[in-house]
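tool_call: predict_structure(chain=1)
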Amino acid sequence: MNSIGNQDSQITVGLDIGSKRIKCAIGQVKDNQKRVNLLGFSEIESSGIKKGIIINRDELIDKIEQVINNAELMADVKVTSLTLSITGEHIKCINTQAAISLNYTNGISNGSREKVINKSDILQVLNSSQSISLPIDRDILHTIPQEYSVDTLEEIKSPLGMTGRRLESKVHLITAASAAMNNFVSCVEELGLSVKGLVFQPIASSLSTLKKDEMELGITLVDLGYTTTNIAVYHKGSIRHSGTIPIGSKSITNDIAVMLQIGLEESEKIKVKYASALASMSSSKLNVNISNIGDDKKRSVSENEISEYVEARMQEIFQMVIQEISRADVKDPLTYGIVLTGGGASLRNIIPLLEKSLGVKVRLGKPTKVDGAKDIADGPSYATSMGLLLWSLYDIDYSHLQNNQDRGFIKIIKKIRDTIENMF
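tool_result:
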């Protein structure tokens, strides 16, 4: 087996830890292209994690080791470092801005002369935008530049090489609980691997599924997971709002189990096979045989009755999604619709339900930009793991992290705090 990891920038590894499934993808970067060739992929039933929080560390480490080993065998590559997804209710976002004067050097003014903007000026203004007062138990996960202003010129994507007296940056800051980040990193490090980056789940999913034009005109990515639903709102080419709702498709499984008085395992199978998110598109004549908990008596229930429970719950989840989206400081953030990813996106007739109830265009977010994923990992539930493979390609200032060999948890969080992410 070839031992290639962060020594070889051509190999990229993503680990997506969900409450339902854990997925590991190994890819090879195509020369001079922002595309990746999938070499190996593995997924496994999850354990030890709920709503993005670790509830049994040993169980989770065992699962991570299994899924990485399986992907390594398929790819014939030994993993030494990886990029990790993170989610959870503890993750919060804030839009902030900062400005610096360009005609001052070491506190001395150069008169009224304008200055050519270099990389250190950009880093300085982005650093200033991170200077917000955070509780002691929180840290910055992402600093994503939205746009810059140079003097009176606004909405500049890259001010490098321009001249001016004042540089201003607007950024999207994503913060997370330090303990949650440290615990995730330590689980992976216990297996002798290093973590190159932690990525908020919907941002990874956006990388693999959204088109540049959509992000420019305005689009919302909704990642419907098992126990959480993650949101990222894009407009004018960059992220404007992100958030997590602590409810996902598992709530539908629970509803079916409670209503029909059956076990969770049977309920999950019924959801996958028979449930329709839009009850009017289900059959009242097709009956599903179910068994009561604790006895062998069989009874039947119509597909339509099951689907009515499912539709009610989906409507509730998407009311919460709309509330979260409305927090974005964007005029008409739903104008160009929703891209739906995550395991919950495979629920039957979910697209017609959303288009009918929200009155906007909705499409399934399937990963693009990763070759070789067809028939292996090309559905909406693989958007995050495929996005993690692409992370280092679209994140041009992230490279200095790879060269830093200090692997302490606190140091990694500090490096993430100091990282400037220029995504697109």
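agent: The chain has a mean pLDDT of 85. Proceeding to next step.
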